[in-house]
Amino acid sequence: MTTRTDIEQVLWNGANTFRGIIGASTYKDYLLPLLFVKYLSDIYKENIDELKKKYPNKERFERAKERLPFKLQEKYSFDSLYAQKNLSDIGVKINEALRGIEDDNQQYLQGIFRSVDFNSTANLGEQKDKITTLKNLLEDFNSLDLRPSKIEVKQGQVPSDVLGDAFEYMIGQFAQQAGAKAGSFFTPMGVAELMARIANPKAGQSVYDPTAGSSSLLIRTAKKAGVKNVAIYGQERDASSWAMSKMNMFIHDISDAKIALGDTLSNPQHLDDDDNLMKFDVIVANMPFSLDKWAEGFNPGGEEESTDKNKKKKFQMEASLDRFNRFSYGIPPATKGDWAFLLHMIASLKDNGTIVAVAPHGVLFRGASEGQIRKKVIDNNLLDAVIGLPANLFFGTSIPAALLIFKKNRENKDILFIDASGETHYRKEKKQNVLLEENISEIYLAYKNRKDIEKFAHVAGIAEIQDNEYNLNIPRYVDTFEEEKEVDIKAVKKEINDIEKQLKEVDEQMKKYLKELGL
């Protein structure tokens, strides 16, 4: 039986095949698609075997075969690629197989392999090196049996859970190795779990992530209500991350998720029948921090900054350029797109909906246009809570971040502040700090109970917010200052005298020993 550990080990073997050739931020684009092809091949093989047993009649078998969730021609299967592993054009063969799988399954898989080239000299080296690498990679995966009947499951699990968890674990490991390039596609599991609990979707609702990355956060949130019980939507700008997202959904047996490719701000893809923004019950997001030039997609004339009077003036974003009216509260600064994403989420939220978003602390206190936006959001009673997280939780940045929770039609008129940044609220690990289950539970219960907790949580009324001039910097509301213990001068002086006395005795004893030795 194939275990999750077996799957992870094979992926690590594949990573070792690439180590020293290309970096983790790139080799994930080769490993995960090949794992996906192996998965498709094995599950299709088992489906075909079952149909042959069930339908010995050839016509009935062919009809049943057409009703399978996806198609896979033999020439595009992993087994076929493995049989050709020694060919000089194996990179071309793998590319042909990937394109063929896409073309045969356009409804679910169209475009997911387009951002990777298995025949790339730039990434995989010259012909001889390329053949060696791809041959080793195919051999790494060949021993893995991903037929559903051969995957070991625990109580309450199905095979797709095991493979999906392994897939997400490896995305996390790649993110950890990729460093600064990883923040865009993966939310650490502890943070994702906390966000999912707070978001708390219900059966029959819709769940949306406007900056989906690999969709790990989106899937974890949807699981709270059951992935088959909610409508799942997402959008991602980066083609590589979007491909991971589509594969992640398929491996988790989520075939009806609508994950769009494109810029969420300038080109939102999820629109209703009237060509307006769709509204969602639950929105979760780990958005790009302080994205520079976020509004360039709105630039109608390609205006550029110039000192030459004959050239076009510098482009400046205006609310009128957005036909979805998302920036009526104000225009975020050109170099910091945090509130642009948050305003998009607010505009996309249903009445009584919930937003849980990761943001840098700057959104809490920066002035100018961001201060005006923050004031209007608070005056409209949209901000429900601010949760400060520990530093060094996220891949690619060591700065601390916060969770912002927004709700529409709130009954209460206050804002809950939680400071979970202290050392007792996380575990420090070698490369990354981690939220443990006890930390997640502590923060979630404080959010749910909504009461003051000394040095941890405070419920601030609107008057208190106004007194602070709408500055939401957490230390203004949660005092975590610890007074230092009073120093007993007499006790310290006595301790110093005792130490000096002991040193004098040791010195005398040492002189005695040296004298006995004739030194």
> Which superfamily, in CATH terms, is the homologous superfamily of the largest domain?
Vaccinia Virus protein VP39
Q: Work out the strand percent.
A: 5-15%
CATH class of the largest domain: Alpha Beta
N- and C-termini, Cα separation: 73 Å
Low-confidence stretches: none
- Rg, rounded, reads 28 Å
What shape does the CA trace take? globular
Q: How many distinct domains?
A: 3
What sequence of helices (H) and strands (E) makes up the elements?
Answer: HHHHHHHHHHEHEHEEHEHHEEEEEHEHH
Secondary structure: helix percent:
40-55%
Estimate the mean pLDDT confidence.
90
3D architecture notes:
The protein is an alpha/beta fold. It folds into three domains: 4-181, Up-down Bundle (Ferritin); 189-295 and 324-476, Rossmann fold, CATH 3.40.50; 487-519. It is built from 18 helices and eleven strands. Helix 1 (4-18) packs across helix 2, helix 1 runs antiparallel to helix 8 and helix 2 crosses helix 8 (127-142). The chain starts with a helix and ends with a helix.
List the helices and strands and how they pair.
Blueprint: H1 4-18, H2 24-54, H3 58-66, H4 78-83, H5 90-104, H6 106-109, H7 121-124, H8 127-142, H9 159-178, H10 189-199, E1 206-209, H11 216-223, E2 231-236, H12 239-251, E3 258-261, E4 280-286, H13 338-347, E5 349-360, H14 362-365, H15 368-379, E6 383-388, E7 401-407, E8 415-419, E9 427-428, E10 433-434, H16 437-449, E11 457-460, H17 462-467, H18 489-516
Parallel strand pairs: 1-2, 1-4, 2-3, 4-5, 6-8
Antiparallel strand pairs: 5-7, 6-7, 8-11, 9-10
